[in-house]
């Protein structure tokens, strides 16, 4: 008894707080090492409630727990994510955003993709300031320090005390962000400053979004965390205080104070880890994929527990409260449904949530003598009405059940059961990857409201200790450490592994210092990616995890930086309150299957839904390249909301409106997806179009995209909208290819399709290359120009007449992207993600035109850079571990090899077929985002017949990707089916 080493896990919910005491040496026993547990209503001052919980277990004479036995307290809380999901003004602060990005990003301001209701609460101020870096470390412009001070004065006058600083490529060079922070601190001493390079990696919009949310919640997080420290000291405990974070591991106090956003999904992660531990002996759960539904007092968080016992993570991006961010989190959907959810009845309707009494349930619900009906009231009323007061189990001893006995009519109870079932079934269906029934584990203090059976669920499980699964998962969280570094290597072949080894050692030492047992530390992730277009510069990331070292006690109070300790005096503790603003959490699902686009007299006027469809489809048609079109999607939807009419015409309708003498210019960016995702665009496309017009001495009648694949697929639409011109449903590839000469003009004119081109970087450089000996040489010139101007630029080619467009373009690629995206979004809405390959196949033209080649997990990725192109090989293993494929890529995927038992590689599909990887949510995966563990479909589409000519195969086939593929023979995967234009299909509806 005296030698016990005990762990305390605490989950603080919006309604209840749970505490568990675990003896880790007894985890294999039937009770999972649980010594005791305690559940209490969350108090307005959360630390007081936790203190009372800990005192309760310390004073328990039966278990005789001493303070000396407690070696760690790990706390998981939903308070921070709930504040965002619920739009709680009492906990979210106004944020000022200072961008250091020079001339870039002005058409995509901060908060551009925030839901309107959340932006209304958080938005305080924003400004773009001279500054930012190129990918090679050169400044876009110098930091304008005077401008920073000017904006600080405005921010101070507005009374804003949370500032997010976001610099272009600050992950590579953070000096401008650091200097900006110094200036802000001088001008507004008490301000909370969040620097984006401390939050996440490359991906400007997503990193900015995460920085904004971190800034909005930081003061409230600090108040909560400081109260934990004071509470522990008051109790006389000499142990570590840790906070659960999103990946199932734990954060030190210092880390949690600086980056509280990392705790956002800790509650759901802990509940899934706890569910895994509690159900590890259940044959229907062990080694299988199940759904976990964590029902609290305010929300229900639903995620998928994989066969490994860890939560399914979001693929590349994560979403919190409708905001997209670029760090991995468990894939969880939250709805406003919990034990404290308010039930409203009228003559014909009954509604449940999304608002909740939260902690006020003990004052205002019927069970506690109040007059507000909650889900707990009706659930317990049903139980006592059916079984009698004498049979009330411990599970239902909440408040005074006699106050709800006989309170509700059979009709009310029936409506309630129906509404509750539908809400749970809908959110479970959305998180499933297959329509097949699947077990669901209900955990969390509000789980007693869950029905015992649900449609689409093979078994409803409520395990022992389900009420405290979050606390169990928190108590048993692992220690993690993460290090990242950007280094210039003189000899990459010999220095890469040496650098990785040094970083692993550094991360391991960091983990041990934080409390990990040395022998248990293991490497879980290593990244060593070359930075595109920069010679010998690599980005390294290493993450390790390890079990808590129960033989040592680490008191980490001293880890808190002194400036944060000083600031605490100015941060009054404010616990959960009734929200001053609370909006609906689960808006009606849009019925994509019934949506029809607006087409009148051949003019397709794009809506925001159309943009979503085209965006999803364009990235899939990118074949791994082209860049994520998310930024362009946000911009186009903002233009539509502002009243801009965006028109798409087929070539036939273009001729009808402007005549056969009409001409159109194709536009696009040249550069790397890494660059386009970090350096937002300026006016470079518009500048390059104007150059072409001046050179040719005539205005263009229309615009079309250089390539449909990826972000460029939407760049043509944006340019057309800005010029008030129609966008023509054409492109030069029908996909994305890595080089400018891998286009139909080069095919048709034998590498001489571009007599001249216009270039612009949007930062002072614009030029026309008036002549080159061929398109391959022209490509080299463009790459050289790009290398010295931020390694990305707009590239606009000569205008084409109608005859040229008929011969040298692919017809209706925007319509094809629309059709693919539509099918993906329909599949997501119906939770039928397994049907995505079939749906996409039908959208492309059926089995004759497309095939799903493989479904499996990425098990290795090798990358290198040559002259700016991302070369590499991704290897995948089928989920049944029966087969392996390898896919080399050069920005775009080149060939799919089946790997035999002897290691022989047998080609089963090659370019010019379109080869694309799609994750389980139907999102395209770019080559820059290939990573271990990602489960994907590998699909192939037949290309236009214009690529099936001898010259087309020479340029767009395997030989066009280098000597390594010279010996490959192209064997078509199927036959091309020309896509029907959206205008043609829907035009009659509006005549």
TrEMBL record:
It comes from the Eukaryota. The lineage of its organism: Eukaryota, Fungi, Dikarya, Ascomycota, Saccharomycotina. SUPFAM superfamilies: Actin-like ATPase domain, CV3147-like. It holds the Pfam family S-Me-THD_C. Residues 8-187 form the Hydantoinase/oxoprolinase N-terminal domain. Transmembrane segments: none annotated. One of its GO terms (molecular function) is hydrolase activity. This is LAFE_0H17854g1_1. PANTHER family: 5-OXOPROLINASE RELATED, HYDANTOINASE_OXOPROLINASE. Residues 207-381 form the Hydantoinase A/oxoprolinase domain. Residues 774-973 form the S-Me-THD-like C-terminal domain. Residues 610-770 form the S-Me-THD N-terminal domain.
